[in-house]
Amino acid sequence: RHHYNESLRLLQVMEKFIENKQPTERSTEDSISYQHSVLPELKLLCGADFLQTFKTPNLWKEEHIKEIVEKFGLVCISRAGSDPAQYISESGLLTKFQHNIFLVKEWIQNEISATQIRHALCRGLSVKYLVPDSVISYIAHHNIYTEESEQKNEGDLLRPLKLHKTTVNPLND
Predict the structure, then answer these.
(1) At what angle do helices 28-35 and 2-20 cross, to 10 degrees?
(2) Phi then psi for 129, rounded to 5 degrees?
(3) Which residues make beta-bridge pairs with 149?
(4) CA dist., res. 82 & res. 48, Å (int)
(5) What is the pTM of this model?
(6) DSSP H/E element including 117
(7) In terms of DSSP bridges, do strands 101-104 and 74-77 run parallel, antiparallel, or are they unpaired?
(8) Which of the two residues, 60 and 15, has the higher pLDDT score?
(9) Which among 74, 128, 124, 82 has a CA at the least distance from the CA of 102?
(10) Interatomic CA distance for residues 168 and 93, integer angstroms
(11) Rounded CA separation 85/52 (Å)
């Protein structure tokens, strides 16, 4: 929602800028780009293991899953041992919006997942060569994915947007 709303806001700013230009300042290029302004589609990129979490009881609200797959869509990358097509066929909701779910089959299987990285970090294991050094530095600097930070956050609802003190409203398309 955040990125969608920001994209809409920027598109509106651009359209107002072009509208407010004096006719002599407007170029043919401006009017063509204004007429053909299209908001890029946003999709949630995930691994097949993430898609499988949609059927975990009490993990997701059905209306959230519906909003994701109906309004935005998914690009789901295959993982060894996961069958995203089966997850979709087993879910009435995912089946209904399967036209908005794109399955990507990796030619070379990569068994590394973000979940596995987080679990390794939480146990104090090295993730060198699995993620970029800049990511490792960021994680260490902010003391995240450690046993201590997990205990501190236990029971908390983690919402990244609360850092921005932004109220996010459902889309009204």
Answers:
(1) 150
(2) 75, 0
(3) none
(4) 6
(5) 0.58
(6) helix 114-122
(7) parallel
(8) 60
(9) 74
(10) 24
(11) 10
Is residue 101 within 8 A of residue 88, CB to CB? The reply is yes
Per-residue pLDDT, 170: 43
Cα–Cα separations (whole angstroms), residue 11 to 5, 8, 45, 68: 10, 5, 23, 22
Terminal C-alpha separation, the chain:
12
Place of tokens 């236990």: 154
Return the closest-CA partner of residue 66 out of 38, 27, 92, 34. Answer: 92
Tell me the two tokens of residue 49: 């293991």
- DSSP-derived letter for residue 23 is T
Average pLDDT of span 86-103 = 94
Q: Which tens digits make up the pLDDT trace of 16-63?
A: 877 777 565 555 555 545 555 677 788 999 988 888 899 888 889 999
Question: Considering only CA atoms, which of 41, 104, 40, 101 is closest in space to residue 66?
Answer: 101
